[in-house]
Amino acid sequence: MGSWGTLGPALLSLAGVALGAGGSLFGQYMVTRASTRQLDVQESAAHRAELKNVILKFLSIASQVEKAALTRPAAARTAADPVLDQLVDDLWLAQAEIDLAARSEPLRGATFRFAARLAEVARGETADASALRGPQVQFMDAAYDDLWPGQRRATGGSRTPR
Q: Are 68 and 122 in contact (CB under 8 A)?
């Protein structure tokens, strides 16, 4: 066997190399973990921006459908209206965009129910604007939950964790 005088420094050098390699691997792990977390945050923000745009588009068209349907004379509610028909077609396309972009099934369902109720109003099957409020509130709540999962709406306009 060798003496500790020659073996000691060799073992200490080997231990230093092992510690250096371990530290390097740990550092790479931490950088990868931080990069993954940053990428997740960026993807979430991009998805939220895309979803917000399609929700705003849907709401804009829904507002136009509601206004056009509820302001036309009662006698004209059963007659075909090409402008209103085009708005309803645009509404269904906007609903399909939300269907594709939404993360959650509650938003997809609430969007469909709100669009279906608006289509009923446009066809003259419902003349009462209050019939739209329930589906509209459900849609808005589902949209909020999909945009900011895990957040609850506060009355002061700020968000608080659930």
A: yes
